[in-house]
Amino acid sequence: MSDKIKVTIDGIPVEVEPGTSILNAARQIGGDIVPPAMCYYSKLEGSGGKCRTCLVKVSKGSEKDPRPMPKLVASCRTTVMDGMEVQNITSPEVIEARKGVVEMLLINHPLDCPICDQAGECHLQDLSYEHGAATTRYEFDRRTFDRVDIGDKIQLHMNRCILCYRCVFTADQITNNRVHGVLGRGDHAEISTYIEKAIDNDFSGNVIDVCPVGALTDKTFRFKNRVWFTKPVEAHRDCPTCSGKVTLWYKGEEVLRVTARKDVYGEVEEFICNTCRFDKKSTNDWVIEGPRQVSRQSVINSNHYDTLQPLPVIKKNPELMEANKEQFERATKF
Ligand code: SF4
Ligand code: FES
Question: Residue 148: what pLDDT?
Fold first, then answer.
């Protein structure tokens, strides 16, 4: 007899292991019915429960107790029960509540996407585009902070932080000396090292990748380019510290930045070390695997990315060279 649990999400049944959260059950189905998640991160133990973007309606609690749950629940923190029925995109109540959550997240977050390095790959930008209301009811000034350099490679722009705690969990769980955290409570809460101490260890750069907004940015990439003008390429190297599997972001022949590879939910597949991220910015440092698949909806795909190839990849292959002649000429003009 199977000891799996059957749950139905937006009318689609799925069988999952006991203890699975509704969000992860939805991820097993995939597609539109997966609730958005701004704070949950499957690779970080204890994450979730902070942002409320993953709210869903449980219209049937379980086979044993079919009563609906009285309020919307955070799907990242609610485990499935056998026979549970959940509504996400099929519930007008959830859609309405999510609009409110986005409005709440934007109460203090500046609308500075045109100058923010995260634009084009910002989860809050996507979320407000898909679920947000065009107006806000908030009349007060937003909280503002000075920008803080956390060491020489990372900059914290606290104005943009949504207090998801992902960077805190990252520093706690994959580095051995966390020196930053959330200080203060309520409207005074902020990410800080208190004395602007450098986050200084081999894996500290991963806080940049887990940050869902532009609060923690890579100083070696800041203001260098818009992400949709760059071409992501998968590459690897034999690294003694991490897996060495990364995404290189090219402009022409130049590697503008190096990040961990991310999955369909924007989570890193494997954390990478600072040497790979900050010190290996030459094509010669890497074994190029090929262009990274980018979702059709992504702004990074805006110039028909699937037909364009990064120059180092083109140059290695005469057929690609011929097929991409026009792109090659255009790119080498800059
Ligand atoms: S800095 Fe980024 S990752 Fe850290 S809590 Fe703020 S939004 Fe989350
Ligand atoms: S993702 Fe569930 S509360 Fe943030």
Answer: 87
Instruction: Compute the distance from residue 146 Cα to the ligand 1 centre, in Å.
Output: 16
> Does residue 292 line the site of ligand 2, with CB under 6 A?
no
- Same-domain status, 254 and 163: no
Domain assignment present for residue 297? The answer is yes
Q: What six digits make up the tokens of 155?
A: 């900059």
Taken as a whole, the chain contains a residue count of 334
DSSP H helices, the chain, are 22-29, 92-105, 123-131, 166-174, 206-210, 274, 311-315, 318-323, 325-332
The bridge status of strand 5-9 relative to strand 84-87 is: parallel
Low-confidence ranges of the chain (pLDDT < 70): 1-2, 177-179, 193-200, 295-334
- CATH number assigned to the domain comprising residue 50: 3.10.20.740
Ligand 1 closest atom vs CA 170: 3
Domain that holds residue 198: 108-133+144-218
Global pTM?
0.84
Q: In this structure, is residue 139 part of a structural domain?
A: no
Beta-strand pair 154-156/216-218:
antiparallel
